[in-house]
Amino acid sequence: MLVHKYIIKRILLSIVIFFFVMLIIYALMRCLPTSYIENVARAKSQQPGSKSYEEWMAQLTAMYNMDKGILAGFFYWLGDFFRGNFGDSWYYTVPVIEEFHDTIWLSFVMGLITMFFEIIIAIPLGIIAATKQYSRTDYTISVVALAGISLPTFFFASLLKLLFSVKLGWFDLFGLVGRNYNQLSAWGQFLDKANHLFLPCLTLVVISIGSLMRYTRTNMLEVLNADYIRTARAKGLSERKVIYHHAFRNTLIPLVTIVGGSLPGLFSGALITETLFSIPGIGYASYHAMVSGDIPFSMFYLAFLAILTLLGNLISDILYAVVDPRVRIA
Amino acid sequence: MSENETKNTSPENEEVQYSLNDDRRVKVLSPGAMVAKRFFRNRIAVVGLSILAFMFLFSFLGGIITPYTEDEQFYRSEYLNKEYAGVVQNVDFRFVSAEGQDLGSVLQAQVVLATQRGNDSFTYRDVDYQVIEEGTDFYRVTLADGTTLGIAYKDIVNSSVEGAKISYDFYYNALLAYTNESGSFSADGKEFTIDENGVVSDGSNEVAFISRYVVQPIMSDVFLSRDFQEMLIVCLEDGQDTFTYTDENGETAEYSISYRPDVKNWSVRQQTETRIYDTYAAPSAKHWLGTDRNGMDMMTRLMYGGRVSLIIGFIVEIISTVLGIIMGGLAGYFGHWVDNLIMRIVDIFYCIPSMPIIIILGAAMDAMSVDPQIRMLYLMLILGFLGWPGMARLIRGQILSLREQEFMTATEACGISVSRRIFKHLVPNVIPQIIVSVSMGIGGTILTEATLSFLGLGVKFPFASWGNIINDVNNTFVLTTYWFIWIPAGLLLLLTVLAFNLVGDGLRDAFDPKMKR
After folding, report:
1. How far off is chain A from B336, nearest CA to CA, in Å?
2. Contacts of B368 in chain A (CB under 8 A)
3. CA-to-CA distance for B507 and B342, rounded, in angstroms?
4. Going by DSSP bridges, is the β-strand pair B127-135/B121-124 parallel, antiparallel, or unpaired?
């Protein structure tokens, strides 16, 4: 069948793209001046009870195949990566996969909560804005959506902290758990974590809501201008039925593809927001790894992100092909 | 009505009557004018445009008008109360041994006992000692044979000359004269006079003074002058809390005295004026938005920060647009393998996680301590280079559809060169989309730059950027206490990005001929 062929073609293409993306990233990492690695080695060797500087240098260069050429080193890295050998994180001093496992689920939960609220808020508002085009409601929704897109995450998070944590004292400023977390019952611990996740999730929802809202509005407008809607209206159907039965179902095509495509993104973590609130998710972990020059963890995280992006594109392409048969020919 | 008619006859408003088929009857607007008309009818977009105009004036003109420079630091003077001296009133006997003799501590204790009991002699270990009262609270200790062992006294002789030693002979004679109020004495072969305040002089200069108060400086490098000590003691006896004293160098300082009953001494604090950076000053007439953590004027920093943010936004967008036009134009025009190749490159760039890459590069530049100015340049190049694929995709899509239209066949028939065909005939038709995309892209770039600067990985001190101004909220104390440090910068940032988006949105609608209004 055609769909199969199409999917296989897309997967093969994704693999090729992944190869080149990682090649570029690897080359970039290699092009960072060697003094950078020396700095790391020097810092490492000065920690109490650590190995000597020369030993660290030797280990680092061998570990990252720095003694080989860029291309050869890249193939070594790729081989290790596909064999599931991701190395040890310098910053966390545990295997990369272990740190990844410790942090990823928290980010996933945050992503899931955010996405749920994003969908149930943004899509209805987008549809309302489109059905009442050029009305006051439409302008308000559009401006609010744009404001959400324009909000700097760090500024919004700081405002929330000032209002809710400092003035009202409802939430803690940082962290995932409160001070007396260990004394709480299981239910209390759950509530404590939920309390600490409220502000980060609120930040993420407000920041991300705008683009989905605008996307919904644009697509809904396009559908509302289509001939079959005019036909439906001409048949004398109620406006309610036209919009929620005929139009909405057709808007779902692009919506399903974009939401489906963003599913892998649930795992990517929120780099900035997690860092701002000190939530120990994958974004926070990788931020600290990256700024402290932890190459193994950074390489792993970048590869992970690249795979997620490719997977997202793949899912949305496939969904598009499944939902809309016209696309398959391409 | 009649008024209107008279108005219409005025020369400038006169409507000339044209024939029905005259072209001049029809008002013709150029496409540009049409777009402008549609744009200005959109109120939200006009709001956006005015915000942008304000931001440009604020950043570029404001920097010129403001009386301060970007990194001018301000000072304020602060009064520091430093512990300066300690004063003890001497209530115990002190002892000085005569030359060649030793008045040990056991004997000292015996002397104190003897004086308390009013005895003039005591026996210790079968040796008899005489305690001769020479004056008020002043005793001489001798052996039975009259050999002087030392003296016991409560009034203390202080040298007025810095570093000078006082001999036993001088000590004895000075105290003898002081306690008996005899006015003069001779010691070490010299004549001295002594006044009722206890000032000892050798005829011309003051050499020492006698007082029951012991004044000691807290810091070892300070020498307390006689004048100062005298003044201090006068104040002590009068029960004054504060006094001012001008030393021989003409420096005036205020001193405060407080008595500490637990250790029975007075501590003297000097109030000194220190100039420190005027950090986190509250908004005032001099600094409209206060000062930041380095004591720099916040308003001025915001103006220069706006310059940096806007310039970076524009340059990055120019870089990525030029790259995008070239790549997208080539891909769209040539199609086939060129298109395939370029689009796969675009796919690859799309897949590179840009934020982490920029963070890593920023951290690497930190490690290499790159000069802030060069760093800004790198930042623009990196952001620009990571941003072109979106533009390339947009242009390629447009050109693919334009390529098949008749006017392109015409250019081919006319034999116009390929580069002219792409960049003179195809690309201008894509300009509306480019303008919209650039307008929104600048907003996005400013946001990215601000985020990086906020994380400390973008624009660095001493250069200001709205992002690195807000960076201060990482300090929780600033977050909670000093709103003027971060809220204005955040609002400017939000408004600017919002304005770019609003203008972009308005332009998109204005360029769209299908727009209803």
Report:
1. 14
2. 33, 35-36
3. 29
4. antiparallel
Q: Are A128 and A183 in contact (CB under 8 A)?
A: no
Are A302 and B480 inside 8 Å of each other by CB?
no
Question: CB-based contact (8 Å) between A292 and chain B?
Answer: yes
CB atoms within 10 A of CB A194: 11
Structural tokens at position B458: 């973008």
Interchain contact, A154 vs B367, CB within 8 Å? no
| Amino acid in position A300 | F
pLDDT at B394: 87
> Over 90: is that where the pLDDT of A191 sits?
no
CB A247 within 8 A of CB A220: yes
| Ordered strands of the B199-201 beta sheet | B156-159, B206-211, B199-201, B190-194, B184-187
Chain A CB contacts of B348 below 8 Å:
17, 20-21, 24
DSSP B517: -
Yes or no: say if B194 and B161 are a contact pair by the CB < 8 Å rule. no
Task: Kindly indicate whether the domain formed by B32-74+287-511 is annotated with CATH number 1.10.3720.10.
Answer: yes
- In this structure, what token pair is assigned to residue B198? 């206890």
ipTM above threshold 0.95: no
Residues contacting residue B286 through CB under 8 Å, at least 6 positions apart: none
- Of the partner residues B350, B494, B516, the one whose CB lies closest to the CB of residue A150: B494
Structure tokens given for A84? 């599931």
State how far the Cα of B302 lies from the Cα of B468, in Å rounded to an integer. 10
Report mean pLDDT in 10-residue bins for chain B, 517 residues.
44 61 72 82 87 90 81 77 78 79 80 81 81 80 80 79 74 80 77 78 77 77 74 77 76 77 77 76 79 82 89 92 89 85 89 88 83 89 89 86 84 85 81 87 90 87 85 81 86 92 86 61
> Which residues of chain A are within 8 Å of residue B494 when distances are taken between CB atoms?
147, 150-152, 155
Domain ranges of chain B: 32-74+287-511, 77-88+215-277, 91-154, 156-211
- The C-alpha of B394 sits at a distance from chain A's nearest C-alpha, in angstroms, of 17
Using a CB-CB distance cutoff of 8 angstroms, which residues of chain B are in contact with residue A147?
494, 498
Output the six-digit token pair for A63.
């570990």
| Tokens coding A51 | 């190995």
Whether the upstream peptide bond of residue A254 has omega within 30° of 0, thus cis, is no
Q: Give the closest residue to B80 by CA, choosing from B281, B271, B307.
A: B271
Q: Is B336 left (phi over 0), alpha (psi -120 to 50) or beta?
A: left
Q: At CB < 8 A and 24+ separation, what contacts does B340-347 make?
A: B342/B392, B342/B396, B343/B393, B343/B396, B344/A13, B344/A16, B344/A17, B345/B389, B346/B389, B346/B392, B346/B393, B347/A13, B347/A17
Tokens of A146: 């744009």
Please report, as a single letter, which amino acid is at residue A146.
L
C-alpha B366: how far from its chain's center?
21
